[in-house]
Amino acid sequence: MKLFKVYPQLDLELTKAQGCYIYDRSGAQYLDLYGGHAVISVGHTHPHYVKRIKEQLDAIAYYSNAVINPVQHSLLDKLGKISGYDAYQLFLCNSGAEAIENALKIASFHTQKDKLVAFNKSFHGRTSRALSVTDNDKYRSRLDKYSNVQFLEMNLNAVESALKNQDVCAVLIEGIQGLAGIYMPEADFLPGLKQLCEKYGALLVVDEIQSGYGRSGKFFAHQHADVQPDLITVAKGMANGFPMGGVLISPKIEGWFGMSGSTFGGNHLACVAALATLEIIENEKLVENAQKVGAELIEALRAIPEVKEVRGAGLMIGVEFDFPVKDIRENLMKEQHVLTGMAANPNVIRLLPPLTLTQEQAALFVEKLKLSIQKISSDAAVLIGK
Ligand SMILES: Cc1ncc(COP(=O)(O)O)c(C=O)c1O
User: Fold this and answer.
1) What does the DSSP assignment read for 253-294?
2) Which family does it belong to (predicted)?
């Protein structure tokens, strides 16, 4: 059998990972500034994470939501406390796209409306409804283009015009736009959005699948602004690589039996992975670490003359150049042994390292990036005969 060809793959076969490092089959070490796409929040194979999962496997790995699951309750307590959303409710599922599907469905049930507002350059996942609010035609089949979605600039006047008919159930926005190339909404945009949603009877859904769980230097990226969304979607860093997603739901929204469901969602093993992740985030003060190391890293990157712009917060960083970054990223991987992420904007390197990244590792990355830039520039000079 062959793998269905939907992923362009790097020429890299991993056999081991630890902390912020990954190792290929020859034993060569790579610094991981990509985190498997913002998934590895507490570092690879963290001993506490491994221990908790092994112990849970020995006790009970899975049972459905038909029974009381004490690990789920521990997770609710811990997430409520760390996120500041103790009063909210939690629905558990298995991926980011599934979290988006559920958030939108819950918004529609609650408001009894069926129109959606999303933003230009957004990415919310690969299932059909998640694609309907994703601003990229390449990813959408004919089945995924719904006429009840409007894509807007991040402009409050445009949003108000779209909401005026009072037929929109949800306005959906990423805490920080990730795949687009790391774009943060302006400071007063989210509070303005919430006010408009309240005025016209829509719910504000913030997608924190990539930007949440401490990545931006706050637990949620929207907490950089003074706003409380009605629904918050989470996944990726939530369980450090164990497949899991969730929706945090305002207490004003009431659930009813059958409103949603998932066979695997919130099972014992997934919950313990999520719980161990939060325990490590709390014990090792990783939100604070992301804030501190991220701020230093952003400053050091801004000082590199070839860098056009650095955007983001905490350890969710976009480094933009005046030219496509493909060759720099390839050199970083092959010669400097550093993995980085790409973005829809071809001129942007996306950095999404584990939140355990140290100041030394961040400084090492900056040195390696400078070497790669030099190498690419000298190769280009040779090519054009300078
Ligand atoms: C902001 C955002 N929303 C949703 C998703 C979809 O998550 P998943 O791939 O777990 O379905 C992603 C994944 O990259 C994302 O970055």
Assistant:
1) SPP-TTS---SSTT-HHHHHHHHHHHHHHHHTTHHHHHHHHH
2) Belongs to the class-III pyridoxal-phosphate-dependent aminotransferase family.
